[in-house]
Amino acid sequence: MKYHYPLIIIILLEGFSILSAQNPGEFNIKLTSSSYYNKGDTIILMVNSLKINDTLIVPQQSISFQGSVSEPVNAFIKIKGQQFYFPIVNDKIRITLEKADSIKVTYETSKVNDNVSSYYRMTDEYIRNFHALESYCNNLPAKEYQMVLDSKLDSLALAFLLTLYEEYKRKKDIEGLSLILPDLTGLIGTRNRPGEIEMIYNLLPDSIRRGIYGKQVQKFLDQSNRIKIGQDINFSFKAIDSNQYSIKEFHGKYVLLVYWATWCGPCLAKIPMLKDIYKQYSTELEIVSISVDKDIVLWKLKSEQLNMPWINIHYRQNSIDLKELFFVGPIPYSVLLSRNGKILKKNIEINRLESILKK
What we know:
With 359 residues, this protein is α+β, with helices and mostly antiparallel strands. It contains eleven helices and 19 strands.
């Protein structure tokens, strides 16, 4: 086990570089606590859900993390099973940890944390409006539900994005605008109006568009521009049971392509719901689960344990890479094909799927 006096963190992630202690463009995080952790406790700093390359053992009550980031990033410190979130920018950052459920974070010059707090309040309001809209649509006839929900949710989301942009522009907070992009990519990933999203994306400064999070938005736009609603889809594939299929064989049924992995918790959580849908609508719907696992043996073992009654395949199919074919990024991800093999919806929620099948 290593002891560091002081602890210097080497972060091996895209978009990161380490500077010398004299370089002014670095972050310096000082973590202090009078009682929460003790000498010998393990502390881990994580960025973008990736563990850095060291296990940190507390040598003293005050701990320092140093390095530099090319753009603001969301991070958290993990101590005793608890995760404490905060933004990292190139600044002096002071974190005081006194209780198991709270931290105090202060920055010497940056206002990014204050503005992120404001963003969370705005997001809470958006979520309330989202749920109110869902409740309204749930009372509509099934044939109107999908159309009204999609249209109104798109409008609500786009208005929210524009409001955020104007708020950060008013505050001249480029750091904060960059920092909230991961949440925005999650938001826009469920939308079907890429033209409006691209318009908002083009408002962003070049530095943000070229950054780690900006590239995630660009990938979404690339996917939307190349894989379009109404596009014909046809490919042949070999299933986990070695049977050969073609998408054309399922014409007359809806086909749901579901991207998943054995290590993806949200993917696994959807399987019981998919089983219920498939049991009820198997004459109307065929499901094709597409695993993105690297470990083929683990995929086959887990698939057997899950006992999925539909077709299960791997994303690598001879000369075809089904991740690249659909420009798949984060999972779970799904594509719904119409009865004649055209893309009907992308990244559709299961409750919306049922409203289509009821028509």
